[in-house]
Specification:
- The protein is mainly alpha-helical.
- It has 16 helices and no strands.
Length: 358
């Protein structure tokens, strides 16, 4: 099984001509009755060997964590981070194995972040014994500082890993760390106020989601036809942006009409419809997937109001599953209708639309 990235490397190395690669892509599109853009490819597995290597990598990292911890309680994550980097030099940089590379990235960033968290947390715990305050109160006051330091370490380690290995998910990992930094800074700002986190967490997450979504669109614009690694980077960024955008919006919709479950459910359905239009326009399904939990809850509430409480969840899953299957089958045709109604200047910035062969 060969990915788009493999084909691009073959062209770059002279094993395939540009014309042969284009013909192969066209043949694949016609055979599947869909365009390669609409398939929304991302490189995860090239064969069972990826799974085999991933299992071995996890066993090695697991052993390093426990052996390091036996030497010193802070050495476990350090050993994980160093081992992940060393393994990535071969399996990521030389073998270009997708799934092991993702695991090794997460292990490296997680190892560095956990090391900083452990060292900072132990220092705060030590200082708490000399502060005169109850330990729990002292640590609670400084938790935002610990979280902020950990987020900075995560962002820097992700940047270092991207500089060396260029794994597509790394950009999303770095942005996730920056979102954590933003949340921790806000926690620090409101730590001495009586403002509940409910009032500031959702707006902060929404702003972060907009920023990540804008960055994802920027990567998409660099590869509108989705033939290069830029599309993989955008995919992971969209996957991160989706829950950051969806959670605050749906929480606001449900809280706004909490006294009336029917109105609240209808509001959720309306928002999901808007998200569907956006997803179809940019040809990304992450928004629809992230909102499924809220959609199931909304349809379940409506079913209960209609007197089918015993079957509400089953009916919700059946309705949503049928809808998603139909949307998948007619994705190209529906997208064609929506995109044609947009301004031409905006259409040129979106992935190309094609008429389904079916």
């Amino acid at each position: 099984m060969y990915s788009q990235d493999d084909i691009d490397r073959a062209v770059a190395d002279g094993a395939l001509t540009q014309e042969a690669a284009a013909s192969l892509r066209d043949y694949t599109s016609q055979r599947k009755a869909t365009s390669l853009v609409d398939e929304e490819h991302f490189h995860l597995l090239s064969g069972f060997n990826d799974i085999f290597v991933t299992i071995a990598v996890l066993l090695v990292l697991f052993s390093c964590a426990f052996l390091g911890k036996e030497l010193h309680y802070n050495l476990g994550p350090v050993c994980v981070a160093l081992s992940a980097w060393a393994l990535a030099e071969y399996f990521t940089r030389r073998r270009h194995m997708a799934l092991p590379s993702i695991i090794l990235l997460m292990a490296f960033v997680g190892g560095v972040s956990w090391t900083v968290f452990s060292v900072a947390g132990s220092q705060v715990f030590f200082d708490a014994g000399e502060s005169g305050d109850p330990i729990g109160v002292y640590i609670s006051k400084n938790f935002s500082l610990i979280f902020m330091t950990t987020s900075v370490a995560g962002a820097l380690s992700a940047w270092l890993h991207w500089w060396r290995f260029r794994v597509p998910i790394t950009v999303a990992a770095g942005m996730a760390a920056l979102v954590g930094l933003l949340v921790s800074l806000t926690m620090l700002l409101f730590s001495h106020n009586e403002i509940r986190s409910d009032f500031w967490l959702s707006p902060i997450l929404f702003v972060a989601g907009v920023a990540v979504f804008a960055l994802a669109m920027r990567w998409d614009l660099m590869d509108i036809e989705r033939k290069t690694r830029n599309s993989d980077v955008a995919f992971w960024l969209h996957l991160l942006a989706a829950p950051l955008l969806v959670y605050p919006v749906f929480k606001f919709a449900t809280a706004m009409e909490a006294s009336n479950e029917v109105i609240s459910a209808l509001a959720v359905l309306a928002i999901y419809a808007v998200l569907g239009i956006v997803a179809l326009s940019i040809d990304r399904r992450a928004l629809l997937v992230s909102a499924l939990v809220f959609l199931i809850a909304a349809i379940t509430d409506l079913a209960e109001e209609l007197g089918t409480a015993g079957l509400s969840l089953s009916l919700s899953c059946l309705i949503i599953g049928t809808f998603l299957l139909l949307l998948s089958a007619f994705w190209q045709r529906t997208r064609l209708i929506i995109v044609r109604k947009l301004p031409e200047s905006l259409q040129s910035q979106l992935p190309p639309t094609v008429q389904s062969a079916s």
